[in-house]
Task: inverse folding
């Protein structure tokens, strides 16, 4: 167990819908990262938050948004879903100000039908 | 923007042989280079990392080398075993501003018994 919790584990929804993925980082970790992993693909960096503030953006679509709350949990919102959004979405967390290991959650598998 | 290139995308070796995976990064401010192993259906997990003030690091059958001048770093696995079969990701991160964690595209390693 990495200490990073993601909910739900699986999500099936229809095209055009909106979903929210939730991530609770390890205790004490201030940085949260979101990644998208499509079938047999790499880890595409979406966005990073540090202590509640957005710090870096990757190839995140405008239909996607995220935030980190005062208790440091984070949510990734995906709207106007398309078939191509089906993927495994990982959240990871790491300590602040030190380049250290990023701990991954078990991922949320999103299937858009 | 910053990116990390990883080669090869797939690698098959005979059990007992060595495997080498190479990565190149673009951001000269990168100073932390971890390697993650992702087994089928599981989360990525750190196997070894190296910081910019070190040229080489070993941990049993695994070693990582870093050439900061060339912006190259490599993963070396010796005496490969079937359980080494997985997808391996390199990453580069920096404390310069964003603490961004950028992953390579992954290498699927198959160790043939």
Result:
């Amino acid at each position: 167990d990495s200490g990073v919790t993601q909910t739900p584990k699986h999500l099936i929804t229809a095209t055009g819908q909106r979903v929210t993925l939730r991530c609770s980082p390890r205790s004490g970790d201030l940085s949260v990262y979101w990644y998208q992993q499509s079938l047999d693909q790499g880890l595409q960096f979406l966005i990073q938050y540090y202590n509640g503030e957005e710090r870096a953006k990757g190839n995140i679509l405008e239909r996607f948004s995220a935030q980190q709350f005062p208790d440091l949990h984070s949510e990734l919102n995906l709207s106007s879903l398309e078939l191509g959004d089906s993927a495994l979405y990982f959240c990871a967390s790491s300590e602040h100000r030190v380049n250290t290991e990023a701990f991954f959650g078990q991922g949320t598998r999103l299937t858009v039908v | 923007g910053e990116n990390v290139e990883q080669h090869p995308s797939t690698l098959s070796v005979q059990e007992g042989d060595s495997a080498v995976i190479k990565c190149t990064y673009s951001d000269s401010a990168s100073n932390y280079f971890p390697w993650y192993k992702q087994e089928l259906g599981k989360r990525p997990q750190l196997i070894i990392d190296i910081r910019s003030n070190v040229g080489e690091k070993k941990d049993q059958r695994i070693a990582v080398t870093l050439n900061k001048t060339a912006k190259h770093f490599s993963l070396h696995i010796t005496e490969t075993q079937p359980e080494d079969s997985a997808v391996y990701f390199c990453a580069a991160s920096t404390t310069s501003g964003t603490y961004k964690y950028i992953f390579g595209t992954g290498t699927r390693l198959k160790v043939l018994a």
